[in-house]
Amino acid sequence: MTRVSATEFKNNIGTFSDAAMHEPVIITSHQRDRLVLLSAEEYCRLTETLTDPAEQRRRQIEERANYHRETIIELARR
After folding, report:
1. Does residue 78 sit in helix, strand or coil?
2. Is residue 10 very low, low, confident or very high in pLDDT (cuts 50, 70, 90)?
3. Separation CA 59–CA 63 (nearest Å)
4. I need a surface site. Which of 21, 35, 50, 54 has the fewest CB within 10 A?
């Protein structure tokens, strides 16, 4: 994991933005961790959020089907 000062980050934002696509970049201020820069994909993975509406809908349907799985199976047997 990369750790940089806020000043170094500000002076090389492009470099550290590119680095954050591969691993989190910790930005420090006065030798203390203040912020973490990470890719949008990693953020979505960590928070389980999705930016694609079609994918959100697909997952929502899948979750609801799994929730009602036993009822669906029982109804199908009748």
Report:
1. coil
2. very high
3. 6
4. 54
